[in-house]
Every structure is written in C-alpha cells, then in structure tokens.
Amino acid sequence: MSSNQLEIEFAGIIFKNPFLLSSAPPTMDPRHILRAARLGWGGAVMKTVTEEPTVDPRTRLGVLRRDGKAIGMNNIELLSREPLKKWTDEWIPKIKQEAPEDFIFIASMMSGPEPEGWTSLAETISASGADAIELNVSCPHGSPEKHMGAFIGQNPKLVEVVTKAAKKGTDLPVMVKLTPNVTDIVPIAEAAVRGGADALSAINTVESLIGVDIETATPLPIAYGVDKKEQLSTYGGFCGPAVKPLGLRFVSQIAKALPDIPISGIGGIEEWNGATEYLMVGAKTLQVCTAVMWHGFSIIKDLTEGLAKFMERKGYTTLTDIVGKALPKITTWTALTKLPPLVAHVIEDNCTGCKDCVVACADGGYVSIQMRNNVAVINNEKCDGCGLCYVVCQDNAIKFVHTK
Ligand SMILES: Cc1cc2nc3c(=O)[nH]c(=O)nc-3n(C[C@H](O)[C@H](O)[C@H](O)COP(=O)(O)O)c2cc1C
Questions:
Q1: Which ranges of the chain have pLDDT less than 50?
Q2: Intervals of CATH 3.30.70.20 along the chain
C-alpha cells in the first residue's frame, strides 16, 4: 500500500484514508479517540453534544441474532454525558494536540428547533480546534420527544433553518447527518444543501423495536427500576450489518440526486468490501460504529489493507476512481423488464445435493428444479429466472444464462 493510496479530499479536507469512527460510544472521550487515532483511523466524529449532558437508561443496547450470530443492534442511548465546555476547553484541544497531525477530528452537535442554539454551539465548537462540524438532526429516540434529532431531520424546512444557523456560527465545513426514518431522503438532503451544508452523512440509526422477551412479555432492551420491579423499554435506533442495504439505498439516492455534495456513508460497514460498496454508490468517506463496538478499533488494519489490495487487483489508482462507480447501473424497474430473459443454471461441480434449492423452488418458486444423480437440475421451460435458488444456495452452485 503506498502512503497516499487511500487519501481522499472531502469537503475541502484531506483524509489520509476514508475510514472514520462515527459519533457513538467509541468516540465518547479522548481516551477512546486517541487510541483509534494512533491505530490509523482517518478521523473521528465525536459523540454528539448538546446544551445539557445526557443521563442514559440502563440497559440501553439490544441485539438481533441469527443462529447465535449478532446481525444487528438497537440502542436507546442518547448524547454525550459530558458538558460542551469539557469538550471545547479540554478534550478537543487535547485530541488535536496528541493525535497524529493528519487525524481529522469532527465535532458533532445537536440543538432544538430554534436557530440561535445551533449558531451558539457552532461558535463555541469552532474556537476549540475541531476540523469540521457534523449536525445531528437524525437521532431517532429520546431526542424527537424533545423536538430535537429526527424531529428536525424529518422536516425539510427545519433542516434548512438549523443548517443555515450553524453555518452562521462557523467557518468550518458543516456536514449534516440525515435520518433514514423518512419517506424520501432527497428533499431533506436538498434542504440541507440549501441551508449551506458542505457535506452530508447518511445514515443514522433506523427506528425500531428490537424484540420482546416472551417469558415476561417485556419489550427489549429492558431498562430496570428499583429492585428490577419495573421493566420498561422504548423505541430505539437499529444499526449494524442488517442495516447496510438501507444505508446503500439512501446514499445512492442522495448521490444520484445531488452529485456535487460529498457524502459520508454510514450503516453496517464491517469489512473492506462493504466499505467499497458504499464508495461505489457515491460515498467519499465512511463511518463505522457497530463493527468497532463489537470488534474494536483494530479492524482499521483489515479495512485499509483490504481496500488497498482490492484497488491494486482492480487497477484503481485513487479512491475517486471508485466513488460512484456503480451509480450509472441503478436504473428504473421498467428498464429492467425490457432486458432479455434468463434462466438458472447449476454448476455441477459445486452442487452438494443438499436440495435446498429444490424445496425453495417447489414452494416459493416455479417448481422447476429436480434432483438427478444427487445433483440439482433446472427445467429451462419452467424456470422464470427469479433468483430464489441463488438466494438459498450456500455452495455457489447457481449461475444465470440467457435462454437464447
Ligand atoms: C450506542 C450508540 C450510540 C450512538 N450515538 C450517536 C450519537 O451520539 N450521535 C450520532 O450522530 N449518532 C449516534 N449513533 C449512530 C451511529 O453513529 C451510526 O450512525 C449508526 O450506528 C449506524 O452505523 P453502524 O451500522 O456502523 O453502527 C449511535 C449508535 C449507537 C449504536
């Protein structure tokens, strides 16, 4: 990997690599952020501050598992426990002084619907030495009931007003972090740009109810009262690997509608290949939370090395060669129906005879697969090319061919 192979310009700032810690527990204080900075992260967005420090419920994290493996997480955690003054007077100067010089520090802030709060927070943060500011108009729990977070981020007029207000208080680049809890993200992204946003981040967490403990009929995660007598919960924010398809959708929709605004892609990034998917749909930097909470800061090594090796293998010399590369291939559904018909084809050497595709096709498809000599065989006359056999095959034994 050459020293500047992963370098990218984003909102006027040069990042040595596109990988940033997103605003979350791994960026709760300088102890965490400096450890990550020394391990090679390109930058970090600090845990969001607002006028009042947060008091959080306990517990506040829930998990979605599949066959024992965590695939998603939900949280009802709010913002920084520390007052703004602690960040601006002590922590941000310390981080800027002790982190490697090329480590980018982004402050995250939130205020209410009144513009003055945003201007004042931005002014205070600007004087502390941060490199950029991210506006959190997207937290889906706790904040909306105080008319903050996603309450603002779901209303284009408010997004425009608070972005303008924050820009009034700072000369630093301002990023606006958007919520996926909207019908259409594009008008919200456009409003942020009208307000003067220099970049957008997407996505924050997806509002969710992670599950219910059926033994006690209690929604999860459980916040306990005295002696655990009271067991209560609330709606939280879903994140981790299971939300990557949503993040990719929102990032690509913004990138297609607003090709000139830099986007920081967030949601379910765990490995270099997921990160590359985000780059290909238009993200220029990438933010990671859950994967760091589950596996630690050291994943930065695999992220950077994996991406660099991929670039070498594919002949990409800079990250900008990759950014948006997949976007022209996202078209309308109608255009896809005009393409010539396909059928499935079994790669015999890979088929293990498990019959998963036969069962799926019989009950959820077009009844077009049979077993012959312990190998799945497709009936081309019946196969509709839907792709279900590919979905259930765990042996990479299905490909698709044109009928003519
Ligand atoms: C426990 C927890 C706390 C979070 N706190 C914040 C926050 O203070 N500000 C913010 O903008 N996003 C916050 N987030 C959202 C993350 O920054 C990120 O947008 C989201 O988790 C999706 O990324 P991921 O799938 O990599 O986790 C938080 C997420 C988690 C899990």
A1: none
A2: 340-402
